Amino acid sequence: RSVPHCPHYGHCGGCHYQHVVYEEQLRAKRLVVQDQLQRIGGLKDVEILPVLGSPEAWEYAQEAAFSPTAGGDLGYWVPRQREVMPIEACSITRPRIMTLFNDIDLDLPELRKLTLRLDGQEEILAALEVEDVEAPQLLVDFPVSVAIVLPDKTAASLIGDHYLLYEIKDRPFRVSPGCFFQPNLAMAGKLVDTVLDFAMLTGSEKVLELYSGAGMLTAFLAQRALELTAVEINSDAVADMVVNLADLDNVILYHGLVEEVLASIESQPDLLVVDPGCTGLAKPVIAQIETIAPPRLVYVGSDLARTARDSKALTEAGYSLVKVQPLDMRPQTYHVDTVSLWGKTKNGKRNGVASLNS
What we know:
Elements: H1 22-39, E1 47-48, E2 63-68, E3 74-78, E4 83-86, H2 95-103, E5 111-118, E6 124-130, E7 145-149, E8 155-159, E9 164-168, E10 171-175, H3 185-199, E11 206-210, H4 216-222, E12 227-232, H5 235-244, E13 251-255, H6 258-262, E14 271-274, H7 283-292, E15 296-301, H8 304-316, E16 319-327, E17 337-346, E18 349-351
Parallel strand pairs: 1-16, 6-7, 11-12, 11-14, 12-13, 14-15
Antiparallel strand pairs: 2-3, 2-5, 3-4, 5-6, 7-8, 9-10, 15-17, 16-17, 17-18
Helix pairs in contact: 1-8, 3-4
């Protein structure tokens, strides 16, 4: 056991493991991955590698989302109480974000959520989600960019820059306010390394990537592939990706729903990479994957229950799970991300990944 760092621990609901020493958190998360894959996914005797821990177990998060309380303050949504709790500190968020949070005096009755993001240069962007799509009138007296995020997750700039710059493995990425990006930058590099390791690219492969976001994985995969086809629905993420991949000439980018785009892609990929976020893969996407039947598949999962559910569906679609690498992207919480490698079964044997068992 360990003494929790945060005065709000046990009340706000954002952290769950602060009472446990970090090494034990990692061991516990590995057991949870094993349990979920077996209980929900129906998978036994799976090779689950030790959890990759975060270099920073505290103050690692580059963003924090706040909601208005009944009294007009800002705080964290507490799922158990179904209410917003005012806060003064957060032990897993970057100090600069919390300093700005404590300095904010915001009078915006239509506000639903305020997300503060910090980039690698310590620049801050405040993303507002409001009930009305009309932009509010704002005045700031400190250096911060402000944007309004619309219901479709696209954004409009109100003050300053309309994006932040993050650096992953010495490569810069532009990211707009409504687009997802890994909040733990040190672990984002480990995620990239894991995906590349599982992808086993030699430079001659055609890669299909679904839910490509702002192109973080896309950039590194494309550098090792013959050709990469990426699919993304968010128009701001697509615009970011065009900038982020400007130096690469082997990427084909589709803007649209994965279910609709897959129906029009005729190229046969050697590798499929999917990163569907917390919603997992929809049934039509699983059916299309079964039709396309790429010999190898790398699944990046951020919600373990959804990953386990999709693992069962992929097994039924003719895939065999080779191994799983858990990553602790969000220390002190129960969340655990995973990267899993799958091979298409052929005559009862994995196709193209048998060497990984040695």
